[in-house]
Amino acid sequence: MRRTEVLRQLVAEHALRAEQLVAPLFVKEGLSQPVEIPSLPGQYQHTLPSLVREVGELLEAGVRAVILFGIPARKDAAGSEAYSPDGIVQRALRRLRGEFGDQVVLLADLCLCEYTDHGHCGVLAGPEGPVDNDATLEIYGRVAVAQAEAGADLVAPSGMMDGQVQAIRRSLDQAGYSHVGILAYAAKYASCFYGPFREAAESAPRFGDRRTYQMDPPNVREALREVAQDLEEGADLVMVKPALPYLDVLRAVKERFGMPTAAYQVSGEYAMIHAAAQRGWVDLERAMWETLLAIRRAGADVILTYFAKEAARKLRA
Asked: What CATH number is associated with residue 257?
């Protein structure tokens, strides 16, 4: 049953579909043209017009969902551009909804790290921290409403604040956006694999790190508690991040809860594959398929990946 490609496909236990992929996209205020991200080959900080073109290409390839990360021209201690009606992500959401209607699922990352002048995911209790969890929740609620008003189908809180899903669900419901869903970054680990993203989103913390609110890599049972809490608070989907180093966590989450489950193949995973391929150490296309299938096999229903467009094109070829 392995003798030919067609026989192998006949008995394949898992498969990828383009519709399961979500493309992460960066949009930056003040650019006159898109800027390639050196550590993420083929990925760009977009202008609004180039973002529209990119989403058009993704739709043609078969990708039906994108998640937006914004880089504002102005940052402050409270990350106020994250909830401004004229913030860069809100403008991008309105533009994409106007261009593509319901052809595309629009997700908006909900965090403050790209918007604060200190680079942490919430407001600080003092000049050098710690992050004030409860004060941050109020701001997260404002961000969620602004994103919903601009056209987001799903908001995706990634800051790992305690109680964030409940606070966001309450704010959305009170503002009349009960139809807007929540993709919770429920098990987001304090990982070294976020480095290229922080370059792309210009979101590296100015001091300290995020280990006081992101999860510690040795822990699995804690991840299950975090997922259970987010589901109880109203999450519609839950996510494990990063994907490849935490496939065991992804499998445990899917088996325990059976809910729609996402995994994020993060920037460092993508960059490593490209770097190895550039040196001739691995075959780029085979490494892409093998890693995406591993994530799917471990239990992901939805995969956020920078390979989205390339993989979708090849799936449709």
From this structure: 3.20.20.70
For position 129, what pLDDT does the model report?
Answer: 79
Give me the catalytic one of 75, 188, 254, 309: 188
What span, in angstroms and rounded, lies between the C-alpha atoms of 74 and 65?
A: 28
Residue appearing with tokens 């049972």? 221
Q: For residue 254, indicate whether it is catalytic.
A: no
Domain-embedded: residue 6 = no
* 269 inside domain: yes
pLDDT digits (tens, 9 = 90+) for 148-202: 999 999 999 999 999 999 999 999 999 999 999 999 999 999 999 999 999 899 9
Asked if 309 is an active-site residue, the reply is no
Instruction: Give the integer Cα–Cα distance in Å for 207 and 128.
Output: 7
Domain count, the chain: 1
User: What is the tens place of the pLDDT at every residue in 220-235?
Assistant: 999 999 999 999 999 9
For the stretch 5-14, pLDDT in tens is 999 989 999 9
114: in domain = yes
From residue 263, alpha-carbon distances to 201, 250, 254, 299 in Å are 19, 7, 11, 9
Name the catalytic one among 241, 254, 309, 314: 241
